[in-house]
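Researcher: Please generate the 3D structure of the following complex. Treat every line as part of one assembly.
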Amino acid sequence: MPIFTAQQLYRLGVAVFEGAGVPRSEAEQVMDLLVESNLVGHDSHGVLRIPGYVDGILKGKIKPEARIEVVKETPTTALVNGNWGLGQVVAKQTMNIAIAKADKHDIGIVATFNCSHIGRMADYALMAVDHDMIGHCAVNAGPGVAPFGGIQRIFNQSPIGWAVPAGKEPPFVLDISTSVCAGGKIAVARAKGEKLPLGYLIDKDGKPTTDSEDYFRGGACLPLGGPVGYKGTGLAMVVDITAGILSGRGAAYLGGNRGQGVFQMAIKISAFRDVAEFKEEMGNLIRAVRNSKPSPGFKGVLVPGELELRTKEIRLEKGIEVPQATWDEIVQTARKMKVDVNRCLESFTS
Amino acid sequence: MPIFTAQQLYRLGVAVFEGAGVPRSEAEQVMDLLVESNLVGHDSHGVLRIPGYVDGILKGKIKPEARIEVVKETPTTALVNGNWGLGQVVAKQTMNIAIAKADKHDIGIVATFNCSHIGRMADYALMAVDHDMIGHCAVNAGPGVAPFGGIQRIFNQSPIGWAVPAGKEPPFVLDISTSVCAGGKIAVARAKGEKLPLGYLIDKDGKPTTDSEDYFRGGACLPLGGPVGYKGTGLAMVVDITAGILSGRGAAYLGGNRGQGVFQMAIKISAFRDVAEFKEEMGNLIRAVRNSKPSPGFKGVLVPGELELRTKEIRLEKGIEVPQATWDEIVQTARKMKVDVNRCLESFTS
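Model: Done. Output below.
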């Protein structure tokens, strides 16, 4: 597998998007978050998205330079039409609106429709942390998950993200799908020809399967919880309601051509607690988790977000591996956009 | 097992609490929610709590007639000292504060500390539904759940509730612990001498066990998710932060003697969407779930909250079974409070 530095991938991606007609500042925002996903180990949301995003732009489905439109607003809330701009560019703006509202009124919620793929939830939730706020982001899109006791795709993988400042400790960061497995992980397993563990997927007849191909042949992902999967079903339905119905995107079962619906919230900590005390208690909790006794077979107990930080440290030093097939696709897209791939890579290796 | 009508249990419970010095209106509020829990099938939060609550009152730990105290307030938020009043009485007041704030400012969040056991999350989340709002309630208490990869109790079972109006359909109601199994269910299994399925509990050495006794001998409940239990761990930690740290109750691992911390939120739907349209889409989603194809071995797909409504219908007609041991304890408590049990039961059977 070829290995690249974050800077190499960033520079190449920015050039590719500029080649596709994306203004530099937007290209930089998108690549910033795609490369960050690779750095923290979530390759399913990294540079492998470049060809798909470019394809969306060329087909007119994703509209660079689109301006978001606030269609309904109160001091604490906003409903936003994303006008099909690049997801990352839209979702950063809408999260900033939520933060600005929380800054003035202690809580801000923004719901967005007509939005392209925004990537990882953590990126937006974390924006609130710098303002001493609790950040939340949830996304709805097309259906991929069967309800508990059912076999049809009704819900989206319904990812949710939370981020909370923790003083001297790195922020608490949760970024999970409320299904057993994110859609991106199924696609990665398929690309690598790998099996998924039993309990992740069912085939079109509702039979448990380990073959990721079954997902793409009318099967479905299972909700979080296994034997108590009604809990994951409920969590997915909450996201279907907040990020889907409240945003105006519509529920997941209505189909994937409605893009993503986004629900973002910021809560100002100082409205409730002294911020320094809050952060100290956060740090204490994080250390209590980290220092607790591991299960047999585990080296230690991880705090949500910790694995990502460790991976980032390693990848900043050793580089980011990109599977050959993914790299070939990126290069093909880059050439189509008349980008000199070698020049993008050279400038940082010399 | 003896069987009673909801009215019999209600009347008996009110008399018992009055005997313990609780004002009638508070006794009625508590019994209203305890009997409702029995009706919807969650006996772990029903009349079996009466002896424990009375014990708390007699020991001065629960303080009837206590007045809640808003210690910090903004137009959209409040931090409340529950002053150890009866949990149900406190949590109804604080949810009403959240609703009143949302009524004026579209969102309201109230966090409460020094709070006794409040019962089921659904009861408070549902209060928002009558105001065309989305309601949320989460609770933190002492530790019972190990983090993924760990064996020590760090988190509470961290229950969360959501309720959303759905027009002609009954409201969407989710009320779940973010662990595999609620604490009350472990206690019920213990009382009945029944085994729990593998994957619910570990013993004090971290070994999987089906024996509920192991939980009370230093074991722990597992987080939601099984092989992806880091997701349940993260969800529990969010509750530990919002209902525990933000409320001032403190994180679960600090111990159980801090009572419950409560996080309640109301979101006004009309700030985002036309309410009639929203409810219509909710109804459509509910029917899409209900009418979707069931898995082999399932009769149908249930919408969260639907099982509870069905159970309520049955129990309103056929009565509520109370296990003999639970009934004996209630009668014992009633006699201690000089309550004429037979009179309470008779008045509704004649």
